[in-house]
Amino acid sequence: MTPLAPGAKIGILGGGQLGRMIALAAARLGFGVHVFAPEEAPPAAIAAKHYRASYQDEAALKRFAEGVDLITYEMEHLPTDSLRDLAESALFRPSLRSLETARHRLREKEFLSALGIPTAPFFALGAGRLDAGRDIPRSFRFPAIVKNCLGGYDGRGQRVARDRGEIVGALSDLGEGEALIEERVSFRREISVLAARGADGDFRAYDVVENCHRDGILRESRVPARIGLAVAARAKRWTRRIAETLDHIGVLGVEFFLCDGDSDSDGEGALFVNEIAPRVHNSGHWTMDACAVGQFEQHLRAIAGWPLAEPVRFADVRMVNLLGDDVESWRDFAARRGVCLHLYGKEPARAGRKMGHMTALYPLSSGGSGGSGGSLGGRGG
Ligand code: AMP
Question: What is the per-residue pLDDT across 224-246, written as a single tens digit (0 to 9) for each?
Fold first, then answer.
């Protein structure tokens, strides 16, 4: 494809902070940006134009598509049925296939299994609820987690089942819709890979990230991750296989659990994929401050048919999410040396809501493995 020239208009489906940061990066490259989101004043409405309508409103989606040269998305919780025409008639990247695979937990896990990439053992719970779980094999281990197949994020749409008897109760808490159950993995670390695949098939991965979640929400990321070189290579190799199989164009994030055990001959531990994000990802925010080209620009380069940048990292980093009223300490954060502050312009500061993040930069450690710097702590303290 001929690369999109500066001046072209990028349409973003979704109005959250990821859309806002894509819009900022697009402006820097000289692109125009239109945003489609149902909210009145979403964080991404810094764009030149905001189409305010429901994601099911196909007429509004069509008008939005007519005003842009390329459509991308900042979240996977989109109704893919209403996007089908759009994806066929407009340049839509990453493709609907990436979106449909990653947004549905069961489809995602079956896709990974077909690739021979391990996940936590899982079992589909279907829609018939009262006898749910009766067919689960005896080898399946509890405690386990019941998850809605659609719509869950930041720990929402999940319930722990300590034994078989708790499955039906967990399902009724979660409401209607398909669900699955997966074994709770006892992991040593959570890690993620952020990578981009260009329109020409070029693939570039950033350094592996180590993540800390609490209550299902990402709190802190650090790079380098405290993992061995073989695990890092394996995680990047699997991410590449996922991107290539999906023919993904754009950035994607893949989250992993690293467990004790020895599934590979390198002896560095057993790796399982938790989930695929077919888009820019919270655990990649540090790339904006620690690399010449961050994930948002890299995503635009990929979807616009530009060459991908080399994802070189210039500093060790810790990224801390500012949740809820953490953001009220912005004066304190702004005064810290070596800390880059990003605020999303959201209101109100509800508990657990992602209001901003900060990235602390440290001198680059040698070798890319082993820790760096002190913890930034819970409330960024
Ligand atoms: P998810 O929305 O599925 O990515 O879950 C959010 C977080 O919950 C993960 O990053 C983990 O910290 C935790 N979690 C989810 N699934 C599992 C699992 N099968 N075993 C252990 N922890 C899990």
Answer: 999 999 999 999 999 999 999 99
Q: How far is CA 371 from CA 168, 228, 267, in A?
A: 43, 12, 20
Ligand 1 atom at minimum distance from 153 CA: 2
The DSSP secondary-structure symbol of 155 reads T
Q: Is 274:112 a contact under the CB 8 Å cutoff?
A: no
Helix spans in the chain (H): 17-28, 58-66, 80-89, 96-103, 105-114, 167-174, 229-246, 287-290, 295-303, 330-334
- Beta bridge partners, 327, equal none
Neighbours of 97 (CB within 10 A): 16
Report how far ligand 1's centroid is from the alpha carbon of 209 (Å): 16
Ligand 1 touching residue 185 (CB < 6 A):
yes
pLDDT tens for each residue of 48-91: 899 999 999 999 999 999 999 999 999 999 999 999 999 999 99
Q: Please give the angle made by the CA atoms of 159, 131 and 135, to the nearest 5 degrees.
A: 90
> pTM for the full model?
0.94
Which atom of ligand 1 sits closest to the CA of residue 105? 3
